[in-house]
């Protein structure tokens, strides 16, 4: 089988490096071109990921894959789109807007940036959660007269919340949600927070994050109807904080439901979803989409981040919430660079490939 030729844009960054790792020896996709900013362009990958003092800055567990070491990083303008089947974009959203617009004119783009997330003809996709929204890509393509399309993932904090809410929303009518996040340092990118700023500290504010979580959750849980996404009728309030954890976001969630719910019913619901999850068997899918713990000392970032190759969403501390007539509280863990961005984007590509969209 001929593999699909893919490019990674933003290949030197936190998410870009994770893409390099997630696409290593991939059965369907082959990285044939890579790009980053002018700072890195023209350099071999190994030199492009050195910091200004010459130290290799590789933020992924394990060795740097051989296939990438000698590849030369291009500028976006130097990419040969005629030789590409798919682009993975992992750049900061302001730069991403122009880059993704240019790429999508010729080739499909899967993006981890927020540049296009809030447009009416753009779905925010989480593979396994709202696969049916992918049909909007055809409308988008037509609307914009593009040969490709843009399929963004959500913000990495929305991902875990939407994944855990979906079964509760469908079966128990989740209607109000309160969430406080404890987000990992790597979520801010390679120059996000300084080491001195985060050690022995908690930063109680992440610019734009809370608004993103609110809007995106409603869109992801919404319904595709007459070529549009009708937002879900669910109210979300949240506080997003940065904590001294390297990888993986933890979120404390309170959810009010219309129907009566308790921890055992929730457990049975997640187990049922595990059995029925649409992405089962895809190369990047975890064996278990959801892990449910009754031990009150889980989830913990250090224990959960490698479960299912970082693709399992962990739920623990599940209790009936007495503040509401019906409702639960729980704590979730979701890996921001795996399911929450690069590897989740590769899983999305696999899902779209199976739907013949790539
Ligand atoms: N970090 C996470 O956990 C996470 C999770 C979900 C979504 N995201 C989103 O994913 C995107 C990337 O995040 P990140 O954390 O990987 O950021 P990052 O570590 O700062 O990396 C940014 C990357 O973009 C490249 N870049 C910057 N300006 C560019 C331009 N004009 N043209 C081409 N490339 C350019 C950089 O190249 P140089 O090295 O050459 O400067 C670098 O490769 C952002 O939109 C972020 O919001 C991040």
Highlighted features:
358 residues; alpha/beta; Rossmann fold; Dihydrodipicolinate Reductase, domain 2; 2 domains; five-stranded parallel sheet; 11 helices; globular; binds NADP nicotinamide-adenine-dinucleotide phosphate
Strand order of the largest sheet: 9-6-10-13-12-11
Anisotropy-based shape: globular
List all distinct small molecules, including ions and cofactors, that are bound in this structure.
Answer: NADP nicotinamide-adenine-dinucleotide phosphate
SSE run: EHEHHEHEHEHEHHEEEEHEHEEH
From the 3D coordinates, which CATH architecture of the largest domain would you assign?
2-Layer Sandwich
Give the helix level as a range of percent.
Answer: 25-40%
Radius of gyration equals 20 Å
CATH class of the largest domain: Alpha Beta
CATH topology of the largest domain: Dihydrodipicolinate Reductase, domain 2
Beta-strand share of residues: 15-25%
Describe this structure in words.
Helix 10 links the parallel strand 11 and strand 12 (313-320). 28% of the residues lie in helices and 21% in strands. It has 2 domains: 4-153 and 342-354, NAD(P)-binding Rossmann-like Domain (Rossmann fold, 3-Layer(aba) Sandwich), CATH 3.40.50.720; 156-334, Dihydrodipicolinate Reductase, domain 2 (2-Layer Sandwich). The chain has a 6-stranded mixed β-sheet, covered by helices on one side. Strands 2-1-3-4-5 form a 5-stranded parallel β-sheet, with helices on both faces. The longest helix is centred in the middle third of the chain and has 17 residues, at 156-172. Helix 6 runs parallel beside helix 8. It has helices spanning 14-22, 45-48, 66-69, 93-104, 136-144, 156-172, 195-198, 209-220, 263-276, 301-304, 342-354; strands at residues 4-9, 29-35, 86-89, 109-111, 150-152, 174-183, 223-225, 228-230, 235-242, 249-257, 290-292, 313-320, 327-334. The chain is built from 11 helices and 13 strands. 50% of the residues are buried. The mean pLDDT is 97. By secondary structure, the chain is α/β, with parallel strands linked by helices.
